[in-house]
């Protein structure tokens, strides 16, 4: 049985935003619509609110009530105005026809319920309350997808983030049949929905839904070569398969190691992209009966960069994800009895604040490969990950000081150019290894490098 209208109305009227609006004088009708009503039915507190107005002049009324100007959102298919108040946003559209016609144009029935603020009445012609109670994501009709293909990805996002919800069979069929249309959506909007899927606790189910519908390969066609590689080579350990299985551990270990949403998101993308280069680097050693993917991380990095540029990732996001991809084998390579403390410290000093993210990527990759089972190999890697986290925490408390700068080397007589960067990098490596501990030792090493480079006797610029 659907949630009672009276109970829903009482819940809506308790919202501070609604109480503010009830004091306003409007030219026309003001309807609360969309996800806020869904959240209230699910006993959650909404942070964002959608409104539909019958009279465009009431945008000014909203601005006056909330003491904040409205601005137009650029990438939405429907002309939308937004007002931001503290940590909340109000999205406002102008009705084109009746509220019933407006609800039919919305994405899903669970978001197609309206509340008349002044009239204190509920409009639910598409039975959205019933679908919420049944935990079903259903569209008004297939035109909902055709008119805005991003709704296919939004459906999967709702499936991922709304607990115990499922996709209606008709919606699943339409996503499978119309998936090619997703790339008609703005890349920024595609990325926004993917971000929400990757940061959800139910990310593994969401990624599986994207895979099964084919939508994943429409958004990231580069993954198809991995899928084909698994099928053609009949791998026991699938390249694409273990990547997808790795998402089962993203939220678990991300939260355990206290990654924030931005970091979990970046690890999620790094996990999705980290083995893309394997399709380009597959080799088979017949004598040893062994498969190799030499330097696949370099190919993966280049492919991932192209994808992220296409989807308008920020510069900071691209830098973080690429660093994780480039280094995703580092912890595995030092997870043996011969590895030294210096090797672990080198990982921390190289990765810096990305160290916990690299640990999570390693664990997702490892458990995706082992099917979640522990063995001697996974225990060694887990032990190494814990040790690296410990060293990272120590580094955070007492960062390794910079002994010399580029300016110091210029004063010593180094010519401007790559020699300075090379020398600084070598000094840093020796500092990590414990071979250089003071500025004097670092400067002495630099002088030796300057002589080796064939420079003239250095002339100090200090005089």
Description:
The protein is α+β, with helices and mostly antiparallel strands. The chain has helices at 5-13, 16-22, 35-41, 58-66, 99-104, 128-134, 143-147, 150-161, 169-178, 187-198, 203-213, 215-219, 224-233, 239-246, 250-256, 261-273, 278-281, 296-310, 315-326, 330-333, 341-351, 355-370, 376-397, 406-412, 418-433, 439-452, and strands spanning 30-33, 48-53, 71-72, 81-85, 88-94, 114-116, 121-123, 136-137, 166-167, 282-285, 290-293. A hairpin with a 4-residue loop joins strand 6 and strand 7 (121-123). The termini are far apart. 38% of the residues are buried.
Helical proportion, percent range: 55-70%
How many DSSP-defined strands?
Answer: 11
Strand order of the largest sheet: 3-4-5-2-1-6-7
Spatial shape = globular
Distance between the termini: 88 Å
Number of individual domains: 4
Low-confidence stretches: 455-463
């Amino acid at each position: 049985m659907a949630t009672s209208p009276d109970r829903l109305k009482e819940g809506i009227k308790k919202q501070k935003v609604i109480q503010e609006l009830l004091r306003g004088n409007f030219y026309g009708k003001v309807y609360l619509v969309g996800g806020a009503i869904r959240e209230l039915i699910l006993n959650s507190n909404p942070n964002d609110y959608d409104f539909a107005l019958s009279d465009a002049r009431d945008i000014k009324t909203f601005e006056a009530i909330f003491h904040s100007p409205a601005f137009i959102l650029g990438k939405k298919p429907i002309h939308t105005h937004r007002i931001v108040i503290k940590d909340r946003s109000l999205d406002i559209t102008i009705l084109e026809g009746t509220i019933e016609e407006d609800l039919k144009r919305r994405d899903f029935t669970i978001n197609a319920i309206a509340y008349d603020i002044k009239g204190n009445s509920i409009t639910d012609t598409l039975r959205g309350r019933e679908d919420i109670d049944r935990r079903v994501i259903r569209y008004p009709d297939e035109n909902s997808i055709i008119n805005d293909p991003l709704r296919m990805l939004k459906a999967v996002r709702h499936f991922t983030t709304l607990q115990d919800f499922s996709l209606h069979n008709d919606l699943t069929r339409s996503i499978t049949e119309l998936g090619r249309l997703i790339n008609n959506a703005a890349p920024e909007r595609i990325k926004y929905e993917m971000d929400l899927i990757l940061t959800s606790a139910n990310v593994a189910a969401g990624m599986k839904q994207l895979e099964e519908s084919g939508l994943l390969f429409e958004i990231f066609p580069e993954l198809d070569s991995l899928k084909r590689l698994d099928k053609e080579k009949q791998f026991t350990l699938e390249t694409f398969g273990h990547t997808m299985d790795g998402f089962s551990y993203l939220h678990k270990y991300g939260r355990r190691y206290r990654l924030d949403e931005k970091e979990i998101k970046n690890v999620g993308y790094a996990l999705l992209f980290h083995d893309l280069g394997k399709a380009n680097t597959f080799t088979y050693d017949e004598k040893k009966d062994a498969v190799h993917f030499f330097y696949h991380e370099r190919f993966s990095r280049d492919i991932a960069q192209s994808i992220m540029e296409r989807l308008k990732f920020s510069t900071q996001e691209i830098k973080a994800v690429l660093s994780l991809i480039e280094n995703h084998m580092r912890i595995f390579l030092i997870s043996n009895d011969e590895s030294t403390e210096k090797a672990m410290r080198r990982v921390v000093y190289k990765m810096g604040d990305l160290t916990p993210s690299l640990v999570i990527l390693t664990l997702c990759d490892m458990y995706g490969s082992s099917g979640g089972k522990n063995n001697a190999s996974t225990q060694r890697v887990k032990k190494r990950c814990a040790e690296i986290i410990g060293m990272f925490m120590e580094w955070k408390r007492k960062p390794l000081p910079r002994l010399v700068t580029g300016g110091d080397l210029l004063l010593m007589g180094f010519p401007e150019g790559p020699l300075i960067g090379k020398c600084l990098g070598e000094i840093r490596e020796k500092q990590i290894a414990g071979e250089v501990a003071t500025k004097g030792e670092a400067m002495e090493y630099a002088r030796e490098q300057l002589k080796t480079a064939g420079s003239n006797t250095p002339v100090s610029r200090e005089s």
